[in-house]
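During the reporting period the student researcher (J.K.) took over the structure-prediction task from the postdoctoral fellow and processed the backlog of single-chain submissions. One of the processed entries is reproduced below for the supervisory committee.
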Amino acid sequence: MKVLVFHIGADRYGLRLGAIARVLPAAGLKQLPLAPAFVAGLLDFHGAPVPVIDLSQLAGAPARQLWFDTRIILIDYPANGAIRALGLLAEHVAGIESIDPASLADSGVAAAPFLGRVAGGEAGMLQLVEPEGLLTAEVRAMLFPAQAAA
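J.K. obtained the following structure tokens:
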């Protein structure tokens, strides 16, 4: 399995390539008043607003910093019976690695619902991010409001 590797602090995380629609350079975002702190803002993606989540803050790390290797990872996210674009702001995107699915193990810790199994390796431990666990129902409703019936 191939994953895009990035860091939150000193820790390595991975997102399955099959979950990724695009990887973009960090860009200016429109702030969303009253949104949770981990909602970085809205990205103007070819005229369409795309909500962006700061993975560092979601994981309890300090607020995002923009580095030369910070990227916005666009994923297809299921919301309201449709697939919508969701941006993930990731610091220190390191590249793509192959992981043997047989090497993945449960972390043994009930952490955040978006954190999945872990793999060891020469470069250190890597934990998978599971996109379906990123947003609570409340945040999902705020970022992807149901379309009004016509």
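The committee noted the following: The first strand starts at residue 2 and ends at 8.
J.K. will present the remaining backlog at the next meeting.
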